[in-house]
Design a protein that fits this description.
By secondary structure, this protein is of the alpha+beta class. Helix 2 packs antiparallel against helix 3 (105-125) and helix 3 packs antiparallel against helix 7 (409-441). The chain is built from nine helices and 17 strands. The chain is elongated, with a radius of gyration of 41 Å. It has helices spanning 5-32, 43-99, 105-125, 279-284, 303-310, 403-406, 409-441, 447-525, 529-555; strands spanning 129-130, 133-134, 151-161, 166-173, 203-211, 231-238, 244-248, 255-256, 259-263, 267-269, 290-293, 298-301, 326-335, 347-351, 370-373, 388-392, 395-398. The longest helix is centred in the C-terminal third of the chain and has 79 residues, at 447-525. The chain starts with a helix and ends in a 7-residue tail after the last helix.
Length: 562
Amino acid sequence: MRITNKIMQRNNLSNINTNKMYQDKLSTQMSTQKKINRPSEDPVVAIRSLRLRSNVTEITQYYSKNIPDAESWIKITEDALSKLTDVLSNMIGQCTRGTNNPFTSEDRGIVLEQLKLLSEEVYATGDADYAGRYVFTGYRTDTPLSFQTGQKQHYTITEQLDKNAIDSVISVDTGKVLDINSSNYDKIDNGTANTPITEDDISSVEVHRIRLAYNDCLDAKDNNNKDLVPTISFVTGTDGNGNITTKTWADGGAKDTSDPAFTKYQIEKMHSFDTNPDPYSYVAGKADAVVYVPETGELLLGEDAYQDLMARKDSESTANVNEGEIRITYEKENWQKGDLRPEHYFYCKADKLDDLGNVVTGADGKTPEKIEYNDTYLTTSAERQVIEYDVGFNQSVRINSRADECFNHGIGREVDDMMNAMQDVQDLEKAVADIEAIMEKLDESQTTELGILQNQLDAANKALTYAKEKEQKMFEGAITAFQKYLDETNLCVTACGSRGSKLDLIKNRSQSQKTTYETLKSENEDIDITEVAIQLNSAELTYDAALMAAGKVMKTTLLDFI
């Protein structure tokens, strides 16, 4: 084959251009530090790069955002639970102090003040939030656990209880002892005209009760001018469609024809200030009585009603239905600052309020619009509001503790009962001191007045003895109750700590995965700078040598030899 200068020139220029393209490729790699700039350069590297970048993005989201967010949420929860533990422990300490003898009036005043402060702190702790989201309120992270101010909003609440919610309460009937003063001691009677007060007018009874979650419940009448009282119903099983079936107390002691063992009781309403009889004495003397006291939020049970409720139990043959469940539906509309919001605990319906706190009405302008909360609670598939964070590939961690697991209504209600019992003792101590002071001012010759006052003093001392006995039992019962609440809180603390430990393990694993994926991604698409620098230097030398060689070839032509 004949090789001409022209052919040599073309070949040199082509090779020089190829060398220049290679040099440009290496120069681009040096400037971008990437092996390829477009998928067509190496499809295998491109495909692997897409997959690895996706993995790095996901693991970075988990490691840098989700896990720290979950850690912060759990830390806020742990701090709040730790504070609750301290408050409950302090309450137990105060109750233990109350059981000590002697328990003086001075001690009583200190304990009373301490319990007031502690009771205010309990539910305030439950309003802990993280970045504006309340941590104990389930999915309703924009709603505080308790009412922040006093307000009026009508709620219809259904509590789901069992026979363990039944306890007993002692009531001391002090008659008119607390009304005695220096101006009326010789005129006051025991409620019957011209009958003086004696210690026979003082009595103490113990009755069974169900203490509702709230006191100061709605005291009103319905459209037929009948007293509004709670509805008490019992779970009996499920129907053919799997819906829970119930039976309700009504019709005053009538037997259910379909179930002779089921007695229906008529619920009556009485007030805590009623006398002759008071609601507690009334129930103690009537076995089939069921009395609703709206001021104290109590359902008082006669002996027959109590025995019927205690006989209720869950059937072992049904897995998803609790036949021992007692449902109590009642109404409340006046709320104080610090009251727990029912929507975080119970199935309930509430009046809808606008931004100004006014009730929103329907098309007729009269009927309030209702908001329904927790409608699944009354079904076989109750949904509990558990918040989980995705913290890894196919891994999630629960981060929240629900209010119903630790911030129990019973804590505040127990404190209220103890405070009332101590206040009763203080009032009676004052009554005894007042009567003794009146007696000291009288002359010994005033035997009639002294006799009246002595009877009143005996009555006051008897009432005081009963009140102190009640107080002691309240303290003893409160220690047990608070210990139970403390155990529940410790269980939440343990669960929270377990979640934190699990999260730490996932975080360590995520850190390792992040490092691995980033290394694989770098090995797949990043250049070895040292190697490319050597290659680029070699390409530059080769390019310069090629230019020199091409220049010599192009200088010489056939004409030079003619």
